[in-house]
Amino acid sequence: MVRAIGLMVLGMALLAASDAFIKAATRIIPMGQTMFVLSFGGSLFFIFLALMKRIRITGPEFWARPVMMRNGFEIIGALGLVVSLATIPLATFAAIMQAAPLVTTLGAALFLREKVGWRRWSAIMVGFAGMLLVVRPFGASFTGWEMFAVLGVVGLAARDLTTRLAPQSVHSLTLSVWGFASTIPLGLVLLQVSGQSMIWDNTAAIYMIGAILVTTTGYLAVTSAMRLAPVSIVAPFRYSRLIFTTGLGMLIFGERPDLQTYLGAALVLTAGIYSFWREAQAARAHVA
Known about the structure:
The protein is an all-alpha fold. Helix content is 78%, strand content 0%.
């Protein structure tokens, strides 16, 4: 169990480093290029891993509706992720993204008809209130770019929900290959829409290599953690990413989050951990 928790925290640290690498890269090269390189490199990594484990990466299941929907939501989530990382502070991005588990719970209740009690509904509302404090849509500091982080939250939460509906015969590595590959055209579309051309820069190349390595290894660490221990034990440690990402924003980019951002992040964090705890309690009661 200790190993699982350690892997989850390590995974969150690596994914926080990915956030920082992507943000640094977008300061040099276009967002579309960043998306294209990250998607292409991640796809190659997972293809290589699947081939090493002799897991097939093609099949008729690709056209299954849940898989196609999952890939579509992956595209939406990736768009929100990259654009928000390029345009808003890391602390703001991290606080908003921590609402993803709450959005997943909401989606499971609304679309998968999973039972959610009033306590978890309350936690969802508190979490959304915290997210509003961070986004502050009616405040003078609101830029509009914050909504791309919200888009990322919705996209990734919907991706996680549709993953539950994917055929059991499809390996998780295969889904990862398809998910990463589906975002490759998005990078080219972003380049076309922005009217920018690709820029070849050695520093940006180092950042992108770093982003690909930490993103994929972080993903594997999280996957391993989820298999070693019950979800209710390791999942709350996902919120350590908030600490890592905010810290990197302060150390590398000189960000100084204000009190309202800290308060909003604290509400999202508390609501998420409580929701996980209540879910674990409900699961134990159901088994009993």
